[in-house]
């Protein structure tokens, strides 16, 4: 099979759409997964703790 | 600089310097009949200076005690010094080239001082010199604090810092001699590019190894942004600089890409340099230093994650909006428009997140110029990303492209967003780095703030006016269907705006000089901090009434 301009365009217009949407859904699931809430709250407060030593 | 290095580490430094010196000597010999030879000699001279310094300090006392129990901030301190030196150099070149547009005789008839050679020294000086050093310096600081771990190396941070500055020096000195690839923001030639790859991979490994040492379970969002900056810049830089030199003794090379592919790769690089060099890393500063300075956590951590992935997914596709109405296939242009418009969502998520963090704390913004730097930066970030999405739409671009509107847009981002967030971050980090209770002079921070804001506004408004006037004049037709204005007519119309932009830039430069003096004096003899509070922000929660101008 020849890989020409048309082939690449068809591929990017179809699969390009799907994989970006799939990644977006994955990110939303990660962000709103209930069990992650505590981890995120801890993280945003962690930087305000005293930080002069490792 | 060598105080925290052991004897074997100092030997390691000497070996590295000798190796670079040898490479410089090879370039000098191979390129003896070419500008390349000058760069070879320059590398040799810089390495000899470094060698002299290292040998002089070789017998200095070695560090005692367990170094893993303290953060390694020496590279950050030196990085901040480099940041300010490049700020003054880059902004001075900017004022000079701006003045040349109004008064062309400021070229002085020399080859090296023509607009074409000075302009890239301005862009490289401010983006890579000022911005890049600020990013490296703050990333070393932030990754250690958020990971609660010392940098994973004692020599490699120096290699990254000095190696990167060697790249910047080669770039800028090359332009004066006429060495350039003529690719915007990617002007340095093949040998400097290869060197940057070595430095950048070391940076990535250092960063990843430090994160691997972390004691916090979760990697704080700033580190994601810094990592995106490091990884994507490596990818962009390599792909956009695959070039074949004419010979190993010549500075000149030819890129392997041809025609419209070359143009597309260049602007895929160019726009993502805006995204991942001038945005991602500075958002990392915003997400760390703004909460730190305001002493309250970021408004929504989840929003920051969505914003991060939105920016990394969307920005990759936006570059083609630089090539509207060209030979680039129409659908690729449309793809660029679509993603540019979508980018508004994650961009405003970050800007809004920053501003919402300050709800209920706006009195601090009134009183604290440092916080005000960061707030105004977030506002300019929001404005500029809106403007960028708008300008990427094809019919708008038909008016704005090739005009000063683009220049105004870039400077709204570079001055209003990038430089202001950097100065806000530096004023936050500098006192704690030198164990001071605050900056040497809060009044000077205030002066710097108003100089910067006035300079940015004058510059941006001048360029908006100038750009739209220029764009409209170019497309005005007479009744007989001929162009109403010659190119020289448009130049005459630009003249007052060119003077205004020079003035705006000059105010910004003066602000940077004031900041450099203030940072230097803070390091030398600022108010000494109480040991217990060495690393806490100046505005602590127990502070009921922050004094004005603090």
What does this entry look like structurally?
The complex is a heterodimer of chains A (54) and B (550). Chain A has helices at residues 5-32, 36-46. Chain A is mainly α and 54 residues long. Chain A has one domain (5-49). The termini of chain A are far apart. The model of chain A has no long low-confidence stretch (mean pLDDT 88). Chain B is mostly helical. Chain B folds into 2 domains: 1-70; 71-524, Cytochrome c oxidase-like, subunit I domain (Cytochrome C Oxidase, Chain A, Up-down Bundle), CATH 1.20.210. Chain B has helices spanning 7-30, 35-56, 74-102, 115-147, 156-177, 190-212, 221-240, 259-294, 301-315, 330-342, 344-357, 362-367, 369-391, 394-400, 404-433, 442-474, 487-525; strands spanning 243-245, 253-255. Chain B has a two-stranded antiparallel sheet with strand order 1-2. In chain B, helix 6 (190-212) runs antiparallel to helix 7 (221-240). Chain B: It is an enzyme of class 7 (translocase). Chain B: InterPro entries: Cyt_c_oxase-like_su1_dom, Cyt_c_oxase-like_su1_sf, Cyt_C_Oxase_1, Cyt_c_Oxase_su1_BS, Cyt_c_oxidase_cbb3_su1.
Topology:
The complex is a heterodimer of chains A (54) and B (550).
Chain A: H1 5-32, H2 36-46
Chain B: H1 7-30, H2 35-56, H3 74-102, H4 115-147, H5 156-177, H6 190-212, H7 221-240, E1 243-245, E2 253-255, H8 259-294, H9 301-315, H10 330-342, H11 344-357, H12 362-367, H13 369-391, H14 394-400, H15 404-433, H16 442-474, H17 487-525
Antiparallel strand pairs in B: 1-2
Helix pairs in contact in B: 1-2, 2-5, 3-4, 3-17, 4-5, 4-8, 4-15, 5-6, 6-7, 7-8, 7-9, 8-9, 8-13, 8-15, 9-11, 10-13, 11-13, 13-15, 13-16, 15-16, 15-17, 16-17
EC number (chain B): 7.1.1.9
GO molecular function, one term (chain B): metal ion binding
Pathway (chain B): Energy metabolism; oxidative phosphorylation
């Amino acid at each position: 099979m020849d890989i020409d301009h048309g082939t690449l365009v068809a591929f990017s217009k179809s699969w390009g759409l799907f994989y970006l949407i799939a990644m977006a859904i994955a990110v939303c699931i990660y962000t709103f997964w209930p069990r992650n809430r505590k981890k995120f709250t801890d993280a945003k407060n962690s930087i305000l703790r005293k930080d002069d030593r490792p | 600089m060598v105080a925290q290095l052991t004897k074997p580490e100092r030997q390691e430094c000497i070996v590295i310097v000798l190796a670079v010196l040898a490479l410089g000597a090879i370039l000098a010999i191979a390129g003896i009949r070419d500008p390349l030879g000058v760069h070879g000699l320059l590398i040799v001279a810089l390495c000899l200076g470094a060698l002299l310094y290292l040998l002089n300090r070789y017998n200095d006392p070695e560090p005692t005690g367990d170094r893993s129990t303290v953060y390694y901030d020496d590279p950050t301190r030196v990085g901040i010094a480099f940041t300010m030196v490049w700020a003054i150099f880059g902004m001075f070149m900017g004022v000079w080239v701006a003045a040349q547009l109004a008064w062309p005789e400021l070229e002085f008839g020399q080859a090296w001082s023509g607009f074409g050679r000075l302009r890239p020294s301005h862009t490289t000086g401010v983006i890579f010199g000022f911005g890049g050093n600020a990013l490296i310096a703050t990333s070393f600081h932030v990754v250690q604090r958020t990971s609660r771990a010392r940098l994973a190396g004692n020599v490699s941070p120096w290699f990254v810092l000095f190696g990167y500055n060697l790249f910047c020096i080669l770039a800028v000195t090359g332009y004066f001699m006429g060495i350039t690839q003529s690719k915007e923001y990617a002007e340095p030639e093949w040998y400097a590019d290869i060197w940057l790859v070595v430095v950048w991979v070391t940076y990535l490994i250092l960063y990843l190894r430090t994160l691997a040492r972390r004691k916090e379970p979760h990697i704080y969002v700033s580190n994601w942004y810094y990592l995106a900056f490091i990884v994507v810049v490596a990818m962009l830089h390599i792909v956009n600089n695959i070039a074949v030199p004419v010979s190993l003794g010549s500075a000149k090379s030819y890129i392997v890409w041809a025609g419209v592919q070359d143009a597309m790769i260049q602007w895929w690089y160019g726009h993502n340099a805006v995204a991942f060099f001038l945005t991602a890393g500075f958002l990392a500063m915003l997400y760390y230093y703004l909460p730190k300075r305001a002493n309250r956590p970021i408004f929504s951590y989840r929003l920051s994650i969505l914003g991060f992935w939105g920016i990394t997914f969307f920005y990759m596709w936006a570059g083609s909006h630089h090539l509207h109405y060209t030979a680039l296939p129409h659908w690729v242009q449309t793809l660029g428009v679509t993603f540019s418009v979508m980018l508004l969502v994650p961009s405003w998520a970050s800007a809004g997140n920053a501003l919402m963090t300050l709800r209920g704390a706006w009195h601090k913004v009134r009183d604290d110029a440092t916080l005000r730097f960061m707030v105004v930066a977030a506002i300019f970030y929001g404005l500029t990303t809106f403007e960028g999405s708008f300008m990427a739409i094809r019919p708008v671009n038909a008016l704005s492209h090739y005009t000063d509107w683009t220049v105004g847009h870039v400077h709204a981002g570079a001055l209003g967003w990038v430089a202001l967030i950097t100065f806000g971050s530096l004023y936050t980090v500098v006192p704690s780095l030198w164990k001071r209770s605050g900056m040497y002079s809060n009044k000077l921070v205030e002066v710097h703030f108003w100089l910067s804001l006035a300079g940015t506004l004058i510059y941006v408004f001048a360029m908006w006016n100038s750009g739209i006037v220029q764009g409209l004049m170019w497309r005005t037709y007479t009744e007989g269907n001929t162009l109403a204005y010659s190119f020289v007519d448009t130049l005459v119309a630009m003249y007052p705006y060119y003077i205004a932009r020079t003035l705006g830039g000059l105010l910004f430069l003066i602000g940077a000089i004031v900041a450099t003096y203030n940072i230097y004096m803070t390091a030398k003899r600022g108010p000494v901090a109480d040991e217990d509070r060495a690393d806490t922000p100046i505005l602590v929660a127990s502070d009921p009434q922050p004094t004005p101008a603090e």
